[in-house]
Specification:
Helix content of chain A: 40-55%
CATH architecture of the largest domain in chain B: 3-Layer(aba) Sandwich
Number of helices of chain B: 14
Number of domains of chain A: 2
Oligomer: heterodimer
CATH architecture of the largest domain in chain A: 3-Layer(aba) Sandwich
Order of helices and strands of chain A: HHEHHEHEHEHEHEHEEHHHEHEEEH
CATH topology of the largest domain in chain A: Aspartate Aminotransferase, domain 2
Radius of gyration of chain B: 21 Å
CATH class of the largest domain in chain B: Alpha Beta
Structural class of chain A: alpha/beta
Number of domains of chain B: 2
Bound molecules: pyridoxal-5'-phosphate
CATH topology of the largest domain in chain B: Aspartate Aminotransferase, domain 2
Largest sheet of chain A: 7 strands, mixed
Strand order of the largest sheet of chain A: 2-8-7-6-5-3-4
Structural class of chain B: alpha/beta
Largest sheet of chain B: 7 strands, mixed
Radius of gyration of chain A: 21 Å
């Protein structure tokens, strides 16, 4: 449609939107489709969080406009959580801003630092919003391949220095969607050095920082000395507290970047419903038992999936974090043809790796955010449809 | 870290200074009468709060479809049909985080770098910032109090250029409270169709309308203009739900689809629980709305009467919203309490310091001969505030 502004025309169709369409189509044909496609926790928001929200809905002040930066009580809860969880000190007044889910900040940070023609360093495969925000601001994307041989960490030394000099933002995401990779000791230090050298804002997406197993504790980027001088970190209550629908997140870190993001977004929205901010506070300040419990659920499903997929022929190292598995496509298929094959023959939805970038080719992602019973059924279908796979 | 030129182009909010000073005085123990507010001073009705609590216990806590749940979009279609005579399908509706967010999405989707957007002044300042953010140029047209601050067809014709893309129309208006008549809207629609430009119709104050006036949506006056209109509305002002952050846009399918695409990249769905609340607001009993409008009507009557008695203040009779927008230029050049007043900004500062009354200077809306006084505050506050204003200005 010619009436639509180029920046929006240039956006790729949002990946999950396309998958949703495919699901709808099969469903309308009467197939009971099981989706391993979308990373939306299936469990309800914990009781104590809902109870707090229900209480706050009745409080008069909450019916009025929130501040777009977030209530100080909310920003303080985020800051306290950083202190408890990572030993990282941030100033709630100047180094924290509320977001309509972390997605909002990821999408809008490019408005703040990227002029048309500037470069943004975007991991590939990666969460599509890094590229989306860049495109909206008219920036150029320079892909950082995340390869299995590098444990899905970008090789900063491979970035040509003239590209690095033009770069304004570096996006990173560990624990990683879609690969489920985690960072390694020393990597974030390299990132800080790199960002300093080239004057780049590091935007670390920590959406999955609380989804981990067997004692593994994913680090915050802000734990690294000097990180606050070069970067910010995005997070939200979506994944740890099963609160995706509530839309509440934060950006934390570099004062300058936080201030600009807050000012910019005050022209886009008027902040998060305060009852929702209070619900998030209840999540952050309350017992973290619900987080361990839900991680236990994901771990059990992970093991279920690893066992079943192992029988079919996949050889997978157990993941340490996220509720995703990133798997190779069997011989004879591309990412897309394999995903289509599974929807068609098994009524099972997986996400083709190419949805996360060109380097996702040859892979697909499954998400463990469905009930154990449904997951069992999906795995059974995969087995009967695929038999034994080779690569 | 160098900022983008866009970020550098964002103006600091002109109301912020007054706001900050008012807060400072309040925290120092002064009793400030706040005529600056842009939201109803009523509670969200019970039935709406109840619907939200129920949605939560039903587990409506996950991602919803990006443009909002189907049931809400259906309810919006019903509302648009019933109230505005507009026929839309749910596929042409996009629910966002407040009307402000709907306006942002619409402007991002329709406006290219270098385009021009016509903005009648006085305007809600967010329009201008959102236009600049899209890399476009706001072309501001000053309207005249003699015309009730309404833009005329010939104003548009004069402002047109090959780059003109969009007109922003706001009726009832913030800050002036003006309400366009059907005839006026029809005349505007004609020139817009001839010129082939789009209109972004901000109808957020639709329900707050007095003296038997009727709200007309420009999209309703002809099929041709409907094809070039994005209607923006929401539940904030009508249902005292500003905090809940639900607004919506109705647009031709292609535009609605692009807005949904943009929103899927930038925020996902608006808060699921607030969507359930908005659904109840639209479909549930409308009694609390009439009660609120009756209260606003009474306050408006009173405030107009009182202002009429203050010499030098000229105030029209706004048909809608909850603002009056008096011309205070008669005070320019006068010395009041040792300062010479030269602008609405000066007068607002004076009223804050001397009367402890906060009003918004017209500069915030693109015309500093005026100040905006909101009557979204209690009758007692209005009475007290006007006493204080009268004392300072007549004193
Ligand atoms: C890597 C990553 N970052 C950010 C988000 C955004 O989550 P939210 O906006 O709900 O905080 C997601 C959600 O799927 C994600 O996978
Ligand atoms: C003219 C106008 N449009 C839109 C809005 C935004 O409303 P919402 O609360 O739905 O974002 C306002 C709020 O002040 C307004 O005055």
């Amino acid at each position: 449609m010619t009436d639509i502004a180029r920046r929006v025309q240039n956006l790729p169709p949002y990946l999950f939107a396309r998958i949703e369409q495919l699901i709808e189509q099969k469903k309308s044909e009467g197939v009971d489709v099981i989706s391993l496609g979308i990373g939306d926790p299936d469990e309800p928001t914990p009781e104590h969080i809902c109870r707090e929200a229900a209480r706050q809905i009745n409080v008069r002040e909450n019916h009025q406009y929130p501040s777009s930066a977030g209530m100080l009580a909310y920003r303080s809860a985020v800051a306290d959580w950083y202190a408890r969880r990572f030993g990282v000190w941030v100033d709630p007044k100047n180094e924290v801003v509320s977001l309509i889910g972390s997605k909002e900040g990821i999408a809008h940070i490019s408005w703040c630092f990227v002029d048309p023609g500037d470069t943004v360093l975007v991991p590939d495969p990666g969460y599509p919003v890094y590229a989306g925000g860049t495109i909206l601001a008219g920036g150029n994307i320079h892909c950082l391949p995340l390869l299995p041989e590098n444990d899905y960490l970008p090789r900063l030394e491979d970035i040509p220095s003239d590209t690095a000099r033009k770069a304004k933002i570096l996006f990173l995401n560990y624990p990683n969607n879609p690969t489920a990779a985690v960072t390694r000791e020393g990597f974030f230090d390299e990132v800080v050095r790199f960002a300093r050298e080239y004057d780049i804002l590091v935007c670390h997406d920590a959406a999955y920082i609380d989804v981990s197993f067997e004692g593994y504790r994913p680090p915050s980027f802000l734990e690294i000395q000097g990180a606050k001088e070069v970067g910010i970190e995005f997070g939200s209550v979506s994944k740890p507290y099963n609160m995706t629908g509530w839309r509440c997140g934060w950006a934390v870190g570099n004062k300058h970047a936080i201030e600009v993001l807050g000012r910019l977004k005050s022209n886009i929205d008027s902040g998060v419903f305060q009852a929702v901010q209070y619900a998030a506070i209840a999540g952050l300040n309350g017992s973290q038992q619900c987080v361990s419990r839900i991680n236990g659920v994901y771990r059990k499903r992970r093991d279920m999936a690893l066992a079943a997929l192992g029988e079919i022929g996949w050889d997978i190292t157990p993941t340490k974090a996220t509720f995703y598995l990133w798997l190779k496509v069997p011989k004879g298929f591309t990412s897309e043809s394999f995903a289509e094959h599974l929807i068609d023959r098994a009524g099972v939805v997986v996400t083709p790796g190419t949805g996360y970038g060109n380097y996702g080719a040859g892979y697909f992602r499954i998400s463990l955010t469905l009930s154990d019973a449904l997951l069992q059924e999906a795995l059974k279908r995969l087995k009967s449809t695929l038999g034994r796979v080779s690569f | 870290m160098r900022l983008s030129s866009r970020a550098m182009g964002i103006s600091p909010s002109p109301t912020l200074a007054v706001d900050a000073r008012a807060k400072e005085l309040a925290s120092a123990g002064e009793r400030i009468i706040n005529f600056g507010v842009g939201e109803p001073d009523f509670d969200t009705p019970e039935n709406i709060k109840e619907a939200a609590a129920q949605a939560m216990s039903r587990g409506m806590t996950k991602y919803t479809p990006v443009p909002g749940i189907l049931e809400l979009r259906k309810a919006i279609c019903e509302k648009l049909f019933k109230d505005n005579g507009l026929e839309y399908q749910p596929g042409e509706i996009v629910v966002s985080c407040g009307a402000k967010h709907s306006l942002y999405n619409a402007i991002q989707v329709l406006v290219e770098e270098g385009d021009e957007v016509i903005v009648p002044a006085p305007y809600w300042v967010t329009y201008v910032e959102q236009i600049k953010l899209a890399g476009a140029k706001p072309v501001v047209i000053q309207t005249r109090p003699e015309n009730g601050f309404k833009i005329l067809p010939e104003d548009i014709v004069q402002a047109l250029s090959p780059d003109t893309r969009l007109l922003i129309l706001n009726t009832p208006s913030n800050p002036t409270g003006s309400v366009y008549t059907v005839a006026e809207i029809k005349a505007l629609a004609e020139v817009l169709i001839t010129a082939g430009i789009w209109v972004l119709s901000d109808e957020i104050y639709e329900k707050l309308i007095y003296d038997g006036a009727r709200h007309t949506s420009i999209a309703a006056v002809s099929p041709e203009i409907k094809e070039r209109t994005i209607v923006v509305n929401g539940v904030s002002k009508a249902y005292a739900m500003t905090g809940w952050r639900i607004g919506y846009a109705a647009a031709p399918a292609g535009v609605a689809k692009a807005m949904t695409g943009l929103q899927s990249h930038c925020t996902s769905n608006p808060d699921s629980i607030a969507q359930a609340a908005a659904l109840e607001a639209l479909r549930g009993p409308q009694q609390s709305l009439s009660t609120m409008v009756a209260a606003f009507a009474e306050r408006r009557e009173y405030i107009l009467q009182r202002l009429d008695q203050v010499p030098g203040i000229k105030c029209g009779r706004p048909g809608g919203a909850f603002y009056v927008f008096p011309d205070v230029s008669a005070y320019f050049g006068r010395r009041l309490n040792h300062t010479t007043v030269a602008s609405g900004t000066d007068l607002a500062a004076l009223l804050l310091e001397e009367a402890k009354v906060a009003v918004v200077p017209g500069a915030a809306f693109g015309d500093d001969r005026f100040v905006r006084i909101s009557y979204a505050t209690s009758f007692e506050n209005i009475k007290e505030g006007l006493n204080r204003i009268a004392t300072v200005l007549c004193g």
